[in-house]
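Q: I have 171 residues here and want to know how they pack in 3D. Can you give me a structure?
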Amino acid sequence: MRNAFLFNAEVMKHPWPAPAPDVAYYTRDTPRSPLIAHTWDEVMEARRKRQAEILYRKRGDWMVGRWRPVFLDTRFYDMDFYGGWQCYIYGVGGIAHWVKYECRKLMELIPLRDPAQPLFDLNWYNWKRVFAQTYQRGEFCDRPRGRLTIWARISGESHWAAIRGYALTKP
């Protein structure tokens, strides 16, 4: 950039001084306005700012820490493949989030006991059945469907969303 500036200054016979070593480039607002010098510090700061904005958007940091109300929903599916009790979280970007790895967190958040076997701890499959009986909101496939509003800490959006925590009341 500097070489082109010096070349044009020599060819055009302009009485411009040689640019300072920290000047990256010159601009003008209009063709007749004076030159505005932009330093390398300004250029690098603009690059850092743009890179931080891109990383902020890509990492989903704009959603981390937001607690949002979601529905915890359990249903029984009467099918050969993918049948049985399933647990979903609705309200994360408008789609259902299938609960498969967060089962321990939910079982600790909502402790339940089976009325038929009160002394035994429930496994994940039986917990979903007891949850549907305890928090019944209608039926699905002629079986009770359980639904409860809880708070979840969400990062990301739509199907890329990850649930970072649960609570029964808004923290």
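Q: Anything worth noting?
A: The CA atoms of residues 152 and 166 lie 4 Å apart. The chain has a mean pLDDT of 77.
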